[in-house]
Amino acid sequence: MKYRHAFHAGNFADVHKHVALLALLRALQRKDKGFFFLDTHAGRGRYALGGGEARASGEAQEGAVAVLAALRNRSEPAPELLDYATVIGAWRRDADARHDYPGSALIAAQVLRGQDRGVAVEVQPGEFEALRKALGRGARVSAEHGDGYQRLRALLPPSERRGLVLVDPPYEDTRGDFRSAAAAVHDALERFETGVIALWYPVKDARDTDRWLAELARRVARPMMAAELWVHPPDSRAGLNGSGFVVVNPPFQFADRCDAWQRELRRLLAHGDTGGSRIVSLVGESR
Ligand SMILES: C[S@@+](CC[C@H](N)C(=O)[O-])C[C@H]1O[C@@H](n2cnc3c(N)ncnc32)[C@H](O)[C@@H]1O
After folding, report:
1. Which of 19, 225, 236, 260 has the most CB within a 10 Å radius?
2. Are 44 and 131 in contact (CB under 8 A)?
3. Domain total of the chain
4. pTM to 2 decimals?
């Protein structure tokens, strides 16, 4: 596998995904009872935005760097965007890492409570070692080396009976990853029907992703939605035109809130005005 998330860390898709991740964790935290968080594709956890890969791609400058700077001057941002900026700021202070960016596992570790529990899985040995180090001892999220899809089957259902599963594959093998990610949703629901499942996907050609979403909806008998934010027209040849995530069993009012914050986020990104966003309500039909 050649994929290194360090080239993409903090890009517009990471921001979109991480605001959503935090909003989902916060929704679960409306209840005192603890929950389980599983990150099946965790990455290395900590990314130097001034480092070689990030500088080479320049993606973070147009994503997290632009958004965090814009949020500093905004008087009343959406609460979800404010929470994102506050959590990244707190992690940077705690980790003494003013110019670094936290991945999904570290963002979760930053906000999980004493009664919550997290597991983050990474398959590449070097990335896993970095993740383990970045999480450190005593973190509320523990790192596991292995295949996230296998670990998903082994770890669900969680003893807490409440939880969030984040599935965030690299899509290096685009078709294969779309297939495996959809299969992971089925595996998760078979074991943990009421769990919240968030699955990130790239929007390259909207016709392909729309077909995939429709097929997923046809096979999942649970409430489900998708949220998409794109920075180039969704059928342009730019490569990664947009960022999308499916949420199965979305928390109460999550879709409405998501519509509001992703519209605002779209305006804060440094991509000109070529993009847009949408919420797709997917009605699951059968299993
Ligand atoms: C998009 S990155 C993850 C980014 C991370 N979730 C975040 O938001 O900060 C995908 C990661 O999945 C890892 N990976 C690929 N296949 C995997 C598998 N089958 N199981 C676990 N990790 C895998 C890759 O090495 C890469 O680090």
Report:
1. 19
2. yes
3. 1
4. 0.96
